[in-house]
Amino acid sequence: MLKKLLLIVLLLPITVFAVKKECGVKPSYDITISKESVHIFNKKNDLTITPNGNVILNKQSVTLNPPLQKKLAKFQQDLRQQLPQLEQQSLNLLLDVKMTFEQAIKNQLSDDTELKSELNKLYKRLVKLLHASIFTENGNTRFSYQNFNNLKKDGEDIGQRIFYNVVGGSILHFDFFKNLGAIKQISKNEWKAQKPKLKAFDAHICSVITDIDAQYKEILTQLNQSIHK
Predict the structure, then answer these.
(1) Pfam families attached here (predicted)?
(2) pLDDT, tens digit, 9 for 90 and up, residues 112-167
């Protein structure tokens, strides 16, 4: 339990998925991508785009004019490229942060296998959380907007739950107080070093999601206009 507490004191500030300033755009639709189609849907709208450019909106086939056809082609290409990239970039960053703290723990608290094991467990839980939002397997990608919009909150909740579960049994250990100074110093130094990178990545995520959302809303408006002509 002591090792878990030290780990959470170290990593409780983790905000790999988002910084305090929230992105102004929050998606309101799920997306599934396969070789056969790009499918974007919620309770209000259901849009399917096939690789050859056929479009079905709310069970109605839509005939596209050339400008709209061009927009749909770009939109589909962006989704097929950007969402898997965003997933991989997030995984890479999360692994990089874990390895950075692993090295700091090794340098200042010795190569503690138990503490490293707890760090790895937390890392795996955060990967699982990310994959609930964006997940690619066998060329198919799934994006869940509700999980994506809750990434920051759910990530913080994981840390808090672990903290409150172990704090009662660990706070009386002498080693906790003995190591607390080193833990705080690692946290202060490493998060200061990581902050610019995390902030830049958060802006990147927001930019990608904002671009996707703007394209989708514009296309949806034009598709509805085509149907109701």
Answers:
(1) DUF2884
(2) 566 667 677 778 888 888 899 999 999 999 999 999 988 877 766 665 555 444 44
C-alpha span between 36 and 50 (Å, rounded): 6
pTM of the model: 0.82
Number of domains forming the structure of the chain: 1
Three-class secondary structure assignment of 104-167:
HHHHHHCCCHHHHHHHHHHHHHHHHHHHCCEEEECCEEEECHHHHHCHHHHHHHHHHHHHHHHH
Q: How far is CA 153 from CA 59, 87, 164, in A?
A: 36, 18, 16
Return the C-alpha torsion angle 85, 86, 90, 91, nearest 10: -40
Strand arrangement, sheet containing 60-62: 60-62, 55-57, 46-49, 38-41, 30-33, 140-143, 134-137
Q: Tokens in use for 49?
A: 């785009």
Nearest to 61 by CA among 73, 50, 74: 50
